[in-house]
Design goal:
The complex is a heterodimer of chains A (91) and B (97). Chain A has 2 helices and 5 strands, in the order H-E-E-H-E-E-E. With 91 residues, chain A is an alpha+beta fold. Chain A is globular, with a radius of gyration of 13 Å. In chain B, 16% of the residues lie in helices and 35% in strands. Classes of the chains: A alpha+beta (91), B alpha+beta (97). Strand 3 of chain A pairs antiparallel with strand 3 of chain B.
Chain lengths: 91, 97
């Protein structure tokens, strides 16, 4: 059942610069993770997205979050029930 | 020196929050925006306690951006204070060959 999701995440994971991908459901459970993204991060990523949605509750779309450190950028986007995090090396 | 909130291009508002979540200084769209301060504090607390860093990497995050379609918030911590800048987001035009 999860094959289409896995295929989609594989496609993202194989993009140059991407080191990890994680997909979580609305309860913060990890649906799939690849590379440097650890499944235990699923809960925090979902909570972070829920907090961010409260910043501007009237906005049409959820924001994209970008967390930057010296060696890694994490991009997080939520869409309905799913939250996706992409781990990248800085450009 | 006081931050007047005019240093960042396309800036529309700013917030400076102390460690306890209190607004120290604010201006523009974010003037006295306690709600934004509280949401951002909650996010930073989550990040601080998180296990989100890649498995082999435990270094701290230096910047958080919250990006909407036409504007974004940039959050950084400096000197035990949280600096938040809200600015318009103008995507670069694609270069035609």
């Amino acid at each position: 059942m999860e094959k289409p999701l896995d295929r989609c995440l594989d496609e993202v994971f194989n993009t140059p610069g991407v080191t990890g991908v994680l997909c979580a459901d609305a309860q913060g459970l990890c649906l799939s993770s690849k590379g440097t993204a650890h499944p235990r991060a699923a809960g925090v990523i979902t909570s972070l997205m829920k907090q961010a949605a409260q910043l501007e509750p009237t906005a049409d779309n959820l924001p994209v979050l970008r967390l930057e450190s010296e060696s890694c950028n994490i991009l997080i986007q939520g869409k309905s029930e799913i939250t996706l995090a992409v781990y990248k090396t800085p450009e | 020196m006081t931050f007047t909130g005019t240093e960042v291009p396309e800036q529309t508002g700013y917030l400076i929050i102390n460690e306890d979540g209190g607004v120290v200084s604010s201006g523009g769209d974010l003037e006295n925006d306690e709600h934004a301060a509280s949401v951002i504090m909650n996010m930073l607390n989550l990040i601080e306690k998180s296990t989100m860093s890649p498995t082999e990497n435990k270094e701290p995050f230096k910047r958080l951006s919250i990006q909407y379609d036409d504007h974004l918030y940039i959050v950084m911590v400096s000197n035990k204070k949280i600096h938040v800048v809200k600015r318009n987001y103008v995507p670069a035009e694609p270069v035609e060959a």
